Amino acid sequence: MRNLRLDLCYDGTRYRGWQRLPGREDTIQGKLETALSRILEQPIEVSGSGRTDAGVHALGQVANFHCDSTMEAAEILRQLRRYLPEDIGIYSCVDVPPRFHARLNARAKTYRYRIWNSEQPCVFQRRYVAVMPERLNLDAMMQAAERLVGEHDFSAFCGNAKMKKSTLRRLDVIDIRRQGEEILLDFTGNGFLYNMARILTGTLVEVGWGERDPKRVDALFGGKREQAGFLAPAQGLCLMEVIY
Q1: pTM as predicted
Q2: Catalytic-role residue among 53, 95, 175, 213
Q3: Is 53 part of the annotated catalytic residue set?
């Protein structure tokens, strides 16, 4: 049986997230599986590198699937581009070794959160940024970010209160910078808990507003969800890259 890798992007605005949902057609995984099953004339299950939330975007998502078809990968790519909606784009479709798994083989991921930090109107990027006009203190945010980097128990940054698996994760980089009217926050780590990037963002924003001491964010490790910051809006987050 063949194993094929998909590299793709999507605008998550009108979707309920990556993961297929019973009785719903508005998920990325569901759209891919429906299209592939039609193209290859057999039931297809797609595995993604991770489950992006409802409204979250991806510039560099990776997935894989198995099939018996002899159709060339280039033709599968052509057909996918024909049948998928215009807000889901496929960069490539290639055969990969049988043991490749988009999620299990991933070593790290990078997420980017975009904040429109200005009182100026943001009309054309409103689907891809979170509008927060109150000026943010980047120096304080960067001080806090330094304390969040490393391997820690990020339980306070997990939106799943019933999480039974380990909440230990490693953040390799948190890069914060201003670019015009925007503030960009890039998070790179070996794995992200449910809502983790958005809660990290909310926590850092509270530091930037002066509502939280940047020298005390490391006291959150091993804590409870309500101790960390607010859940930043979904539309500001984008999966940028999966590293293998």
Answers
A1: 0.96
A2: 53
A3: yes
